[in-house]
Amino acid sequence: MPVKEAESNEPAQPGVIYLCPGSHHLRLSSTGKIALDAGPRIDGYRPCADVAFESVAAYARALSVGVVLTGMSNDGAKGAMAVKAVAGHVIAQDEASSVIFGMPAEAIKTGVVNEVLSLDAIAAAIEKRVAKLARLVPVEVR
User: Fold this and answer.
1) Rounded to whole angstroms, how far apart are CA atoms 83 and 19?
2) Which pairing describes strands 34-37 and 65-68: parallel, antiparallel, or unpaired?
3) Is the peptide bond before 40 cis (omega within 30 degrees of 0)?
4) Which of 7, 70, 82, 103 is spaced 20 to 30 Å from 114 by Cα?
5) pTM for this structure?
């Protein structure tokens, strides 16, 4: 699956992995467009993973896939709960392959993580989940 840095006002496309620029919060609007915000830190973070996960969960609901990777503190834990609350799928990086296990550990502690995987196994797990979702929900032609 292609991976790219998100651009403001870009419509999110199925099957693409978007990375948040390090200087902005990323949100997915109700119309499926990416919004980048250089506003103040949220809960001490910019970008704030919780903000991104929560907006994706609100838009994509059960089609959401949240992945919490290595990092400090608890950013991503509330967002993981938001993804799980709409029947989305949550993956966390395992301790052995994390440089800093803080973020994945906090997400795991919430009890909502579906899979704890090594960094090397995460891409295949995302592809497997997306393939399963694609069989269940046909992609709209735009």
Assistant:
1) 17
2) unpaired
3) no
4) 7
5) 0.91
Q: What is the CATH number of domain 3-136?
A: 3.40.50.180
CB 12 within 8 A of CB 32: yes
With b for 16 or more beta-carbon neighbours within 10 A and e for fewer, the 39-72 pattern comes to eeeeeebbbbbbbbbbbbbebbeebbbbbbbbbe
Asked if 52 contacts 79 with a C-beta cutoff of 8 angstroms, the reply is yes
Question: Other CB atoms closer than 10 Å to residue 10's CB: what's the count?
Answer: 16
14-42 residue pLDDT tens? 878 899 999 999 999 999 999 999 999 99
**What type of residue is 79?**
G
Q: Which pLDDT score, from 0 to 100, does residue 138 have?
A: 66
Residue pair 112/84 in contact (Cβ under 8 Å)? The answer is yes
What's the CA gap between 68 and 97, in Å, rounded?
13
Dihedrals phi, psi of 27, to nearest 5 degrees: -130, 155
Q: How many Cβ atoms from other residues are within 10 Å of residue 7's Cβ?
A: 10
The mean pLDDT value of the chain amounts to 93
Q: What are the percentages of helix, strand and coil residues in the chain, rounded to 5?
A: 35, 20, 45
Q: What stretches of the chain show up as alpha helix (H) in DSSP?
A: 49-60, 77-85, 102-109, 119-136
CB 5 within 8 A of CB 21: yes
